[in-house]
Specification:
Blueprint lengths: L10 H5 L23 E2 L5 H7 L5 E4 L2 E4 H28 L3 E4 L2 E3 L32 H10 L3 E4 L5 E5 L2 E5 L5 H6 L3 E5 L2 E8 L2 E5 L7 E8 L4 E6 L3 E6 L6 E3 L5 E8 L2
Parallel strand pairs: 1-2
Antiparallel strand pairs: 2-3, 4-12, 5-13, 6-16, 7-8, 7-15, 8-10, 9-10, 11-14, 12-16, 13-14
Length: 267
């Protein structure tokens, strides 16, 4: 296989990385007898990993073991999330109903639905929209989600996956994928455990600047996963979304790990 071997997360984190988020590549082979004990992932061909070996086959990933059935289920979940990301963004876009706000406001993880400093609900036709350049380097599912949400700030993680928190973001290692598909879906191709893998790297935080109004007033709304994200809106023209402060190294994402914030200056 050809490819650049990128820097990988620390070995201590990789050894505990759930097998359902690893990736692979190989060549199609006819079915063959497999050992009853665990098999290093590198010794299985792509065809065996995808379909020809039984779901019950135990595979070894560093010091961790799992089954092909778990690998396949995690892969299917990620592929489904990719197909649905744009539709999910549209749904959340429709839920962003701006409410009057002003000043600097920090919203904690316990708040989930529309928020504001006071009442006075009103529809604002033209909220500030986050430039696509903010998420241009993100995996394809996050790009589709944020582009469809048309929010002022957007953060996304793939649902139903175990991901690792790294110094430069959040890593999701997909389970049954070729190099071409990896690149197409915005992943990074690399090697570990003597095999090739695809890492999908998501930002752990995002800061978006918007033009503040002269009176430092704005309308705002948000729809955020209550257990995963917190966000802050600064009246001087900045929105920051980040993972919750107590986020562990290994995270199992829920069925909607997203956060979208909408701001209209001068509202």
């Amino acid at each position: 296989m050809n490819g650049v071997r990128p820097a990988l997360p620390t070995s201590a984190r990789l050894l505990v990385l759930f097998a359902g988020v690893v990736a692979l590549v190989g060549s199609a082979n006819a079915p063959r007898a497999l050992a009853a004990t665990s098999i290093p992932i590198a010794k299985l061909s792509l065809a065996e990993r995808l379909s020809t070996a039984p779901d019950s086959t135990t595979v070894q990933l560093g010091s961790h073991t799992t089954t092909l059935g778990q690998l396949r289920a995690a892969h299917r979940a990620r592929e489904l999330a990719l197909r649905k990301a744009g539709s999910l963004g549209i749904v959340l876009r429709g839920k962003l109903t701006p409410v009057q706000g002003g000043g600097t406001r920090t919203i904690g993880s316990s708040e989930h639905t529309n928020v504001g400093n006071s009442g006075n609900l009103q529809i604002v036709p033209q909220p500030f929209v986050e430039p696509p350049s903010q998420y241009a380097s993100a995996p394809a599912d996050m790009k589709a989600f944020c582009a469809a949400a048309q929010a002022s700030a957007c953060l996304y993680l793939p649902p139903g996956q175990q991901v690792t928190m790294e110094s430069d973001g959040v890593a999701d290692w997909d389970g049954l994928i070729t190099q071409a598909q990896c690149v197409q879906e915005g992943g990074t191709w690399g090697a570990i455990w003597n095999s090739w893998f695809c890492a999908f790297n998501y930002p752990a935080s995002v800061t978006v600047h918007f033009p503040p109004a002269a009176n430092f007033k704005f309308t705002q709304s948000a729809n955020c996963d209550r257990t995963t994200f917190t966000y802050t809106i600064d009246l001087h023209g900045a929105i920051r979304i980040s993972l919750a402060a107590a986020t562990p190294v290994i995270v199992t994402t829920d069925d909607n790990p997203t956060c979208v914030v909408s701001v209209t200056p001068g509202g």
